Amino acid sequence: MISLNSIEIQQYEQNRFPYLLIDRITHIIPGEYAFGYKNFTSNEWFFSIHFKDDPMVPAALLQESLTQTAALIILTMPGNKGKVMYMTEVSNAKFRRKVIPGDRFDIETKVIKWNRGMGKFEGKGFVQGMPICSASFSLVLPDELNKFKVKEE
Question: Catalytic residue among 50, 98, 120, 124, which?
């Protein structure tokens, strides 16, 4: 089991402030699952514009937090440190409650299937144990995927 602070996360993950949406990985088993969190403080760049009188984290950024946490499941596997991963699909996304300034957004992600640089994942987000969002999504690791391309002569 591995845990990562914000500096260590940046050794594996390509995103940087203000788009790195994970503060800490509390535990991760490479190739299987990851748990982490993001503390959303009142000075986040999006709170002043989304929405002025009712600030909340945009749903797309909640999904991005799930995606970044899931990517670390693969990026912590041997040989993948610092590589880029892309999201290719989101399905069954549900957003149940708002995340507001001061909330700690807890994240749970797991691998459903991983093969040849492509995978399916599930993620869930919580605030104080209350379900906030969930989604199934696909990620790709182009560096690994390219190993399986048919070579032209």
Answer: 50
